[in-house]
């Protein structure tokens, strides 16, 4: 029953931790500090490089020493990053503390998911889709609410946004104490430091389904990672105020929560082959159309809502499909490997998008991202002929 309690505690924890307005106001905050889009791109890139370095080691650390220990490190790092960002003002300092942000994400990304998914598998293995759907709905609602709060607070002071964020993350830190550890092991199971390399030697590189599932988020990140990073700056360049930006972004998130409810029904009727393998083509095609009409704020925003809604169905289906396809013993490592590939994508794409947006504008830059993403989707879908 303690694992059942984990499920409900995690849903509250995930809602609170995603109530952070950081992702919404971070680029705007850096822009307010007189950073160019190219500089913002490099700051984000350092964050992604830090994630890249620590992702797989953090997953191995989680598999070896437990989920909660890993979560403690990640949550403390996040609080340190928020406080440091609030008090610093120089470009070099922002680069330095982005490393701390990367450490935080690396140690929290797969760990929290492991606690949730392993608790479900121990209690209700046949209800993975159901609980994953609830989690995603709460996730999008939380993000949507955070953008409204962030937009409202940012109209008065960006510092107030950070104070709010620090308070929320301290509460989340307390939640970690309450979780019951889900990674059960004894001394005979403690692996040697070389286990990371042994994992890669033992991995079935001909399991195209798992390889596709690991690669898919990184491919979609080529489009949506930089778009989410720069979206608030893009809207601000059209003289839209922070509270209106927050409302527009919240509508995107709330639409994702509504469409997330449909994921389980779609999977039961059409299967993962549609929601995980075919749906990304539709999403990226809409993204390309959205990029073409980027100068028309209302039309591009409506297309963004459509993209985000379909992404919600894909994300819920994808996470459920992946969790069912991997074992507990290397779950943390595989989830960290997935995040590592996303970090590589972000490390490469963020500074390039910032630089080319400074030169050619957002529309042309995002159009190129969409075409690259569509090409890679076509190649990888050939590998996974059926999910």
Automatic annotation (TrEMBL):
SUPFAM superfamilies: MFS general substrate transporter (SSF103473)
PANTHER family: PERMEASE, MAJOR FACILITATOR SUPERFAMILY-RELATED, TRANSPORT PROTEIN-RELATED
The keyword Metal-binding belongs to this UniProt entry's keyword annotation: no
Protein name (database record): MFS transporter
Organism per entry: Holdemanella hominis
Keywords, comma-separated and alphabetical: Membrane, Transmembrane, Transmembrane helix, Transport
Entry's transmembrane regions: 7-29, 69-88, 94-116, 137-154, 160-179, 210-227, 247-267, 279-295, 334-353, 359-384
Protein topology in the membrane: Multi-pass membrane protein
Annotated signal peptide: none
């Amino acid at each position: 029953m303690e694992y059942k309690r984990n499920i409900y505690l995690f849903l509250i924890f995930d809602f609170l931790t995603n109530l952070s307005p950081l992702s919404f106001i971070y680029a705007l905050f850096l822009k307010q500090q007189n950073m160019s889009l190219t500089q913002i791109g490099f700051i984000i890139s350092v964050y992604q490089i830090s994630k890249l370095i620590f992702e797989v080691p953090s997953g191995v650390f989680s598999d070896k020493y437990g989920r909660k220990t890993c979560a403690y490190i990640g949550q403390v790092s996040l609080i340190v990053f928020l406080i440091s960002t609030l008090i610093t003002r120089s470009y070099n300092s922002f680069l330095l503390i982005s490393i701390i942000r990367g450490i935080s994400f690396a140690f929290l990304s797969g760990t929290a998911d492991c606690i949730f998914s392993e608790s479900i598998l121990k209690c209700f293995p046949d209800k993975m889709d159901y609980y994953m759907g609830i989690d995603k709905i709460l996730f999008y609602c939380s993000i949507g609410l955070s953008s409204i709060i962030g937009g409202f607070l940012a109209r008065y002071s960006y510092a107030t946004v950070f104070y709010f964020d620090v308070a929320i993350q301290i509460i989340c830190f307390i939640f970690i104490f309450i979780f019951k550890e889900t990674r059960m092991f004894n001394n005979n199971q403690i692996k040697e430091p070389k286990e990371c390399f042994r994992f890669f030697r033992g991995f079935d590189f001909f399991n195209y389904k798992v390889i596709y599932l690991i690669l898919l988020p990184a491919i979609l990140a080529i489009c949506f990672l930089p778009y989410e990073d720069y979206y608030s700056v893009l809207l601000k360049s059209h003289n839209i105020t922070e509270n209106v930006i927050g409302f527009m972004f919240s509508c995107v998130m709330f639409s994702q929560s509504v469409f997330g409810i449909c994921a389980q029904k779609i999977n039961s009727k059409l299967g993962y082959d549609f929601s995980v393998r075919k749906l990304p083509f539709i999403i990226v095609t809409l993204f390309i159309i959205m990029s073409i009409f980027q100068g028309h704020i209302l039309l591009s925003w409506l297309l963004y809502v459509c993209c985000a809604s379909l992404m919600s169905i894909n994300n819920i289906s994808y996470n459920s499909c992946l969790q069912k396809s991997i074992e507990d013993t290397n779950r943390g490592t595989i989830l960290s490997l997935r995040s590592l590939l996303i970090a590589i994508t972000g490390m490469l794409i963020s500074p390039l998008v910032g630089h080319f947006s400074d030169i050619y504008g957002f529309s042309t830059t995002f159009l190129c991202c969409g075409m690259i993403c569509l090409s890679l989707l076509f190649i990888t879908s050939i590998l996974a002929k059926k999910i």
